[in-house]
Amino acid sequence: MKQLCCRNSLLQQCGRVQRALLGLLILAAGAAACSAFQETPAQKAQRIDPVLSAAGFHMIPADSPKKREIFNSLEPLQMHYYVGKNGNAHYWFADPYSCNCVYVGNAKDYQRYQNLRIQQQLVKEEEQTAELNQDAAMQMNMYDPFFFPY
Question: Can you give the residue ranges of every domain in the chain?
């Protein structure tokens, strides 16, 4: 009887270890999957640059030693602004990954940029919704005994 009890206890411990290892494996696979879908800085730059141009921002290339010196001190891929002497806001966006340039614009350009970003987000959400609807329709049709594809 004591042997049977020890064997059951050993099996329970092995089961716990296996479950813990399986949990760690699933966690590692999830982390790897998330990092695979994370956008790189170069991809972010390639996505944002056309929107900035369409919004009216002007591209200033870092094509001289003085410009490169200033350019290297700027925080990349972040929208920043400063208020000029006349009280107007001026916006800038440094891109060292795609164009090696700085996009500059005014308040109207920035507002257009924000509107374009919102439109892009809405289009993306509509595409995702359409894909989900299509997937759901395909799953429903798969279980329909009277479904005959044409």
Answer: 51-142
